[in-house]
Amino acid sequence: MSVPRYPVLAKKKRALFIGRFQPPHNGHLEAIKKILGENDEIIIVVGSAQSSHSLDNPFTAGERILMLRSLLREERLDLDRCYVIPLPDAEMHAVWVAKVMAYSPPFDVVYSNEPLTRRLFEEMGFSIGSIPLFHRDIYDATKIRRRMLADEEWESLLPSCVASLVKEFDGVGRLRAISKSDKKED
């Protein structure tokens, strides 16, 4: 009788959740909680990891990972059930799912409401989960960045630890500096 060299672990249902998280907001937090309620583990993929210091992507991948880990901790979510990984963009949609799979632990289901993301993973045979849009009219990272630029209230739209990190990184100052142009109007 042979004895396995390594313990056999029970298969866990692992979910993938992809976003740019520029910055992570309360809508993202609600999605994470829902996904963890339906799965054993979650892989949070920080997309466009190569991008930073632009109006659409002001924060670095490292800053976004810190923000996500902080909100998981602040919400007392089990960090042993959560992975946070960076993922640079792929040059072609046809190879993007393979790139995700290469950067990520194995997963069973993909949670996304984005039509192209859903289609690409469906074509590769993955199950797709939907995420209820939690107050999408206010919890939208583009709108939150616009509020920061317009000097409107934005902090209440983010978990408190994320708002603190945005301030620590001078995110508002960064956005304002990026939004300026050296081009003269005709």
Offer a few descriptive terms.
186 residues, Rossmann fold
Helix/strand-derived category reads alpha/beta
- Specify the overall morphology: globular
Supply the number of helical segments. Answer: 7
Number of strands: 5
Total count of domains:
1
Order of helices and strands: EHEHEHEHEHHH
Terminus-to-terminus distance:
84 Å
Unreliably modeled segments: none
Q: How would you write the strand order of the largest sheet?
A: 3-2-1-4-5
The CATH topology annotation reads as Rossmann fold
Q: Overall pLDDT, averaged?
A: 91
Structure description:
It is a single chain. By secondary structure, this protein is an alpha/beta fold. It has a single domain (14-179), classed as Rossmann fold (3-Layer(aba) Sandwich). The chain has 7 helices and 5 strands. It has helices at residues 26-38, 61-74, 93-103, 115-123, 141-149, 160-168, 171-179; strands at residues 14-19, 41-46, 82-86, 109-111, 127-129. Strands 3-2-1-4-5 form a 5-stranded parallel beta sheet, sandwiched between helices. It is globular and about 45 Å long. The model has no long low-confidence stretch (mean pLDDT 91).
Outline:
By secondary structure, the chain is α/β, with parallel strands linked by helices. The chain has one domain: Rossmann fold, CATH 3.40.50. It has helices spanning 26-38, 61-74, 93-103, 115-123, 141-149, 160-168, 171-179, and strands at 14-19, 41-46, 82-86, 109-111, 127-129.
Question: Which secondary structure elements does this structure contain, and how are they paired or packed?
Answer:
Blueprint: E1 14-19, H1 26-38, E2 41-46, H2 61-74, E3 82-86, H3 93-103, E4 109-111, H4 115-123, E5 127-129, H5 141-149, H6 160-168, H7 171-179
Helix pairs in contact: 2-6
